Amino acid sequence: MRTIPISAWIGIISTSLFAFAAVFAPLIAPYGMADIVGGVWDPMSSDHWLGTDNLGRDLLSRMIYGARTTLTIAALATIVSFTLGAMLGMTAAVAGGWTDQALSRSVDLLMSIPTLIFALVVLSVLPASILTLILVMGILDATRVFRLARAVAVDVNVMDFVEAAKLRGEGRMWIITREILPNAMSTLIAELGLRFIFMVLFLSALSFLGLGIQPPEADWGGMVKENKDGIIFGIPAALIPAGAIAVLAISVNLIADWILNRATDLKGGRGGN
């Protein structure tokens, strides 16, 4: 505990608070997510700590419920992205040949289309649901995880211990899970934090454009859209969820940096011994 730097503690505490709000949202939110409890854009008060939104709903309650929606969807999409991208990327690196070419060129084709435009087109055609949103976000982002996982796996695949495993007759899946994945873990963990934050921003952008979470459900990107007109009148209702997204991004990156540095130090220590 004493070796954890202050920056990592800041990230851990901030992220833990967001996670706590997401898990216990119904218990700690002072009002219901869609309850109209005041006037339009009422100022901060003892009854409404962050004021009210464009419909008179309690902004603090919307923020808490928005944390649950935003973090849950971003986390599930990140899991889909990493599971699909990492396994396909490492499979391409180990298999080589036509398998590598087919997977790599397919990923290049998907990456040639701007992600946001692709998502807007797909989501406008498919039925609107949270599952569809998670799958579209995860699959589109898996292309970037694929490139990273393949690049790391190519370097590890030529190591002596991997060659020894191949000579022993170990299968492809065994080599990926037992040899390559453990040695690529520190890089993937660092990228995991970045991809999670990208998912939060991606979801927020889709909601802001009207194809993400649909009202009256709350998420931070949708809250920015709902209250953006208040900025003209000096009302901070749209800036509060935007600030929450920024704080979450910084917090998760601080944790990811600490984990990456710790993993690097441990590897250096083993190498020195």
Structure description:
With 273 residues, the protein is mainly α. It has a single domain (22-272), classed as MetI-like fold (Orthogonal Bundle). It has helices at residues 6-23, 25-28, 59-95, 97-111, 115-125, 130-157, 160-167, 172-208, 220-227, 239-272. α3 packs parallel to α6. The chain is elongated, with a radius of gyration of 22 Å. The model has no long low-confidence stretch (mean pLDDT 88).
H/E element sequence: HHHHHHHHHH
**What can be said about the biggest beta sheet?**
none
CATH homology-level superfamily: MetI-like
The figure for the number of domains is: 1
**Tally of DSSP β-strands:** 0
Structural class: mainly alpha
Low-confidence stretches: none
CATH architecture type: Orthogonal Bundle
**Approximate strand percentage:** under 5%
General form: elongated
CATH topology label? MetI-like fold
Radius of gyration: 22 Å
CATH class: Mainly Alpha
Distance between the termini: 24 Å
Helix count, DSSP H or I runs of 4 or more residues: 10
Q: Indicate the percent of residues in helices.
A: over 70%
Q: How much is the average pLDDT?
A: 88
